[in-house]
Each structure stands twice: as structure tokens, then as C-alpha cells.
Design brief:
This protein is α+β, with helices and mostly antiparallel strands. The protein folds into two domains: 65 residues, Double Stranded RNA Binding Domain; 37 residues, no CATH class. It contains three helices and three strands, in the order E-E-E-H-H-H. The protein has a three-stranded antiparallel sheet with strand order 1-2-3. Helix 2 crosses helix 3. It is elongated, with a radius of gyration of 20 Å. The model has no long low-confidence stretch (mean pLDDT 94).
Amino acid sequence: MNRYEHYTYSVHWSPEDACHIGTVAEMPSLSWVSDDPNTAFSGIRRLVADVVADMRTNGETPPEAIADKDYSGKFMVRIPPEAHRRLALEAAEQNISLNRLAATRLAA
């Protein structure tokens, strides 16, 4: 199976362009425009297949699919000190850790 088949494709309606636009998250510079959503979807998939083939021909490595990446579940977020203090106080008032409060908010 080709790795580009694991990519994150989507089709959305563009009121500005009055058409459907197919995109792929792993290659944000690519898009396919069509009046029909199915054609936008198949168009972006064909375009990605062509781009990936060209990249391989030129010795380039195509981007890894988001779905195929491993995630640790940890990342750091910087916020203003006042927001940190407010969230720490809220967590203390709820008798939960700041980490649990932040994780719950982010997951919502």
C-alpha cells in the first residue's frame, strides 16, 4: 500500500470560491477545486499520488502521514504567568492537578 493513502484528506465547501476544495493536511500547499465534492476528493488524491511519485523520483522523502506517527502524549504549552496562576488556582479549588485540568480542557 502506498503511504499517501494514509494521508489526511478532506473536502470542504468554499463560499468565496463557490466550489468544493479538496486538501491534504500533510501537504498544505496542495488543493483541488471542483463543483463536485467527489471529484474534489479524487482530484486531491491523484495530485498527491503524482507529487509523491515526483518526490521519490527526485530522491526526496514524502511527508509522513499524521496517522502513522507515534505520539508520546506529552507536549509543552507556554501561557502568560497570569493564566498559569488562574489555572493553578482553579485546579486547586477542584482538588485536581493542573495537568488534569489542562488535559480535560484540551480534550473538550
